[in-house]
Amino acid sequence: MVRKYSYAKDKDKFLSKHFQVKEFRSYNDTTNKLTTDEILIDDNLILMLEKLYDKLDNLYAIKSIVITSGYRNKEFELSLANGVLNSQHMQGKAVDIIVNKKSGGVVDSKLVCVVSEEFLNGIGYGKSYTHVDVRDNKSYFDETNSKTNIDSFESYFNINSGNTTYKYKVGDKVIINGIYVSSDSLDRLTPKITNGIITNIKKGAKNPYLLNGGNIGWANDSVIVNNNIYLSNKTYLGSSIVDALKEINVDSSFEYRKKLASLNGIKNYSGSSLENLELLKLLKEAKLIKA
């Protein structure tokens, strides 16, 4: 159901856990003014945005979904270069969004498009933003080049959100005991580098996980020996990696620290103060890969 709101009267009203009426206002960034007091918002749009929020938060630890453009009255819509009569924005069924991460920066619009396919019929890639709407029929499009009738953003961008048919997702830090030179190679090689970050997932490939942008190679589930298994001691206030490890009942010997160093990118570990401080920093951040 599409409901009618007043910016003056209802702007601070929460429509759901994460969204307020004022975020959907009809606002002209050029004139820095509202174009109307009236705001139309479809109940289903709010429902889908909350579902999208939860999914994105689970995948990328997001801070907020910012609505850059919500409802548009007729005069405002038609004043835009790409304005469309009776657009989804005019009906209160669409928003353009930017997704902010808790760690800083934004979730790539390409990834937002891919994840949105689970919930929304209308999706548009805008590079710096993502258009989403709750129209009745499927319509995927690229607003950067006017391409329409996109069947799947996973295929269009050659990426995968990592939350459907794959055990791991983009951004996961993994340890491997084998590697492949291509996504479809059958020849398993011994890796020179045994840990990396998944930077892309090629849907349908024998070895779908691209590590470190291709600098390591391709992997599959069988060669990933663990994933995101970290040691953590966020409460430790001292400056000794030995004491910090002991505090969480972990082997603090030189030999074990040498293994930790190797897995975490510290080559030729000698036990120096700088090396130990780097290990301690990772431990406090819960990013120290467990040996």
* Helix vs. strand class: alpha+beta
How many whole angstroms does the radius of gyration measure? 24 Å
Biggest β-sheet: strands ordered side by side in the sheet: 5-6-8-7-9
| Biggest pleated-sheet summary | 5 strands, mixed
How many distinct domains?
A: 3
Shape: elongated
CATH class category label of the largest domain: Alpha Beta
Give the end-to-end Cα distance, rounded to a whole number of Å. 55 Å
Helix content: 10-25%
Order of helices and strands, N to C? Answer: EHEEEHEHEHEEEHEEEEEEHHHE
CATH-assigned fold name of the largest domain: Muramoyl-pentapeptide Carboxypeptidase, domain 2
Distinct helical segment count: 8
Mean pLDDT score: 90
How much strand?
A: 15-25%
Count of extended strands: 16
Task: Indicate the multimeric state.
Answer: single chain
CATH architecture of the largest domain: 2-Layer Sandwich
Would you write up a description of this structure?
The protein is an alpha+beta fold and 291 residues long. It folds into 3 domains: 156 residues, Muramoyl-pentapeptide Carboxypeptidase, domain 2 (2-Layer Sandwich); 55 residues, no CATH class; 60 residues, no CATH class. It contains 8 helices and 16 strands. The strands form 5 sheets. It has a 5-stranded mixed β-sheet. A 5-stranded antiparallel β-sheet has the order 13-12-11-10-14, with no helix packed on it. The protein is elongated. The model has no long low-confidence stretch (mean pLDDT 90).
